[in-house]
Every structure is written in C-alpha cells, then in structure tokens.
Design goal:
The chain is mainly beta. 7% of the residues lie in helices and 52% in strands. It has a 14-stranded antiparallel barrel with strand order 1-2-3-6-7-8-9-15-16-17-18-21-22-23. The chain has a two-stranded antiparallel ribbon with strand order 4-5. A hairpin with a 5-residue loop joins strand 8 and strand 9. The N terminus is likely disordered.
C-alpha cells in the first residue's frame, strides 16, 4: 500500500510541473460520465461505486457484489451526442472486471470550401466523432484498500482523417476506520495522438520555375502530435446517517489537469430509504485562468451548479433498477441534461 502511494505521489509531482493550457487532443475524454456523479458536481473519485465509476476511479468497482450494467446519454454541446456504457463483473477473490465504451457523435455536415462556401444540398458531406473502449481490473489489497487499472483504446476521426492511441487509468481507494473515503486516480496516461489519412496527401511541384518537370510528385502534409488530457484527481468522501431513513453523502475532489488550472469539485447526495436520491454539486470551483497578456485572473469555464435526482427500485423477481437524471448550468450554453439507467443482476 505504501509503495502505491509513493507511485501516485511521484506522478503527481510530474503533473504539477506541466502548464499547457488548451494544448491536448481527445477533449471528449474530459467529459464526465454518469448522471449520479455529474449531479454531485463531478466529485466522485472517492465514491466510484457504480459502473460509471470506471471513468472516475477504476478502484471503486472492487466493492460490487453483483453484475452491474449502466448506460448514460447526454445531448452535449454544439449539437453533439455523448454516450457512455459500462459493465462490471465481480469475480470473488480474483477481483472485479469492467468494460466501458464511450462515444461522441454528431450529424453529418456539408463540405464547405473557399471556392464553394455555400454548397447545394446534393454536395459532399462529412462526419466527425470519437470513441474510447476500456478494459479494467480492480482488486482489494487489504480489507480497506483497493487498486484499479483500466486500459483504453482511443480514436478520433473527421472526414477521411483519424487518430488513435492507447492510454491507462490508475486508481486507488482507501476507507479509514471512521469510514472516510480517500480516493486518487490518474486518467488518460499515454502517448500522443496524430491525425493521418488521405486528406493529407497532396501533389507537389518541386520547382515551379522549371517548365516540363513533374508537377505531380506525391507529398504528405505533416500533422502535429498532441498529448492526451492527463488528469490527476484526489478526493474525500464521508457518509452521515441523519436518521434511520435519511443519510447524506458529502464529497470533495481536487483536480489537476495538464491543460488547465487546478480546481475543486464539491457534491452532496441525500438519500431517503436508499430509494430516492437528491443531489447537488458544483464543478470547477476556484478555477482561475491567467492570460499571458496581463496579470489579471479570468473565470474560464461556464460550468455552474448541477442538480440531480435518482430513483432505485427492485423489480419483483427481477433486477434492481436505478434511474438517475442530472441538469447542469453551462452559462451561455444554457442547461445540459443527462440520463442514466443502471441494472444490477
């Protein structure tokens, strides 16, 4: 356990040495997954006890006792669609396995060029999208400490261009004797992505001043390599029993990404008879972006307060169902909702 914390601390030091604002690829990997976690202001690294927890901290799935499947959907910004589907399978003393699939899609758009800025409806169209597929494994190392790992394949594409790569997520979760939860995770640790495809192929005239030479030499436009959005999370969580039927879960996450300033996520979840849930939270608290042209701090993201509702119901002779909803204020982008359905067998 001590070695694991040393490893995490070493990587944390490396993370804090970076300051690359808005210089990463695969931005969709920064979109949170799960209506429950988003309803708690994305403060979930110390909880992560449902299938969507694979996104926040793969170590959290070790406490699952049943097979669980979750599907999350959200109509995202700029007329895009966000999907996250996850499943976890407990294997007893062997640990817990997990699967995840994330996708961002959009409708086709017309190809517009300088010579044809307003094409007809019969013109050429293009599409864009991103996917990530993950396989995870987590295990209890002691009765209070768990460790999790997720390997992911990532792909982005636009028109006839694509970029792909691999990354890993690492997480730990520790329960103190007072049942305070301490969670840490590192997400998207991997190589860089580079766009490639037939759209980079061009014909080159080596010397335009020479008449009669080959002016159709095959060439390829070089594209840059961009790192993944590396995110370090450290969180605390504590559950309080207010009465026999009402409990309150409080969470606090400190976030350090490699492409933005640090910030805090704060969340609350009230539970009535472990069947009805009310959630509230706020992400990107104390986020301040300092521009290079002056010394003033400017508020960066549009993230506001999140509200969430949840209902858990055990179908007679069937699975346990949990339906969750979240609504988040995104300022000029207005409100964005999301829905999760979780089944436990």
């Amino acid at each position: 356990m001590i070695r694991a914390f040393i490893i995490f601390w070493s990587i944390q030091v490396a993370l804090f040495s970076q300051n690359n604002v808005a210089t990463t690829s695969a931005a969709f990997l920064e979109i949170g997954a799960g209506a429950r976690s988003l309803g708690m202001g994305s403060a979930f690294v110390a909880v992560a006890d449902n299938p969507s927890g694979l996104y926040w901290n793969p170590a959290g799935i070790t406490y699952a006792t049943e097979v669980e499947v979750e599907s999350f959907y959200s109509p995202w910004l700029a007329e895009t669609q966000f999907y996250n589907n996850t499943a976890i399978v407990p294997m007893g003393r062997l640990g817990t396995m997990g699967l995840s699939f994330t996708a961002v899609t959009m409708d086709e758009m017309m190809v517009r060029t300088v010579t044809e800025p307003e094409p007809s409806e019969y013109g050429q169209r293009f599409s864009a999208g991103s996917i990530a597929m993950g396989l995870s494994y987590a295990r209890l190392l002691t009765d209070r400490f768990s460790f999790g790992l997720q390997a992911k394949y990532i792909q982005e594409n636009i028109w006839q261009m694509s970029a792909s790569g691999l990354s890993i997520d690492i997480g730990t979760l520790f329960y103190t004797r007072g049942n305070t939860r301490i969670g840490m995770s590192i997400s998207n640790f991997g190589g860089k992505l580079k766009m490639g495809g037939i759209n980079t192929l061009v014909d080159i005239d080596v010397d335009e001043n020479i008449y009669g030479n080959n002016d159709r030499i095959d060439g390829d436009l070089g594209t840059g390599n961009w790192p993944l959005p590396l995110i370090f999370r450290f969180g605390l969580g504590k559950k309080f029993d207010l009465s026999k039927e009402i409990s309150c879960l409080t969470t606090l996450d400190a976030i350090h990404p490699n492409n933005n300033p640090e910030y805090l996520n704060i969340g609350l979840e009230y539970s009535l008879k472990n069947s009805l849930f009310l959630r509230i939270g706020r992400s990107h608290t104390f986020y301040k972006l300092k521009y290079l042209d002056n010394e003033k701090n400017h508020t960066g993201p549009e993230n506001g307060i999140s509200f969430g509702l949840g209902l858990k119901y055990n179908i007679p002779l069937g699975p346990m169902l949990e339906i969750d909803y979240v609504m988040t204020d995104y300022g000029v982008f207005k409100n964005i909702g999301g829905y999760s359905i979780t089944a436990r067998f």
